[in-house]
Amino acid sequence: xSSTQRDLPQLLGEARRWCEEGLFAAMEAAGExxxxxxxxxxxxxxxxxxxxxxxxxxxxxxxxxxxxxxxxGLVAAGILEQAPDPASARQRLIRRTAEGERVHRLAxxxxxxxxxxxxxxxxxxxxxxxxxxxxxxxxxxxxxxSATG
Length: 149
Known about the structure:
The chain has a single domain (9-135), classed as Winged helix-like DNA-binding domain superfamily/Winged helix DNA-binding domain (Arc Repressor Mutant, subunit A). The protein starts with 7 loop residues before the first helix and ends in a 14-residue tail after the last helix. It is built from six helices and two strands, in the order ααααββαα. With 149 residues, it is mainly α. It has a two-stranded antiparallel ribbon with strand order 1-2.
């Protein structure tokens, strides 16, 4: 790898930001309340039936406190609500409100349009290949000093 070649994590991060910026612009154009990248990530890992804050934090790769702060902001915005967890009296499930469902559908439609625009720019075959590569299980991260998977 040459010193000017960007590494894969950098490229993946730039691709994620490109998608997020497109999503933020689409939601702003639709008159929706702005949310943070962390709040967008939280909504993307939320199960339809609800998810605990601990599980959201695990899926997002953040601390429980960070996930809780994102949840709190979305609850205050009327996007999410807390409900009793039928499996545990000590936990609460975080789930979308009716308003949250509406915004979620709007965001999914915007992301579909963004993917269509990407296909128009780089070609549908490359978008399919990119999606296939990212959906393929990669297994656990490589062990330190491991040359192969």
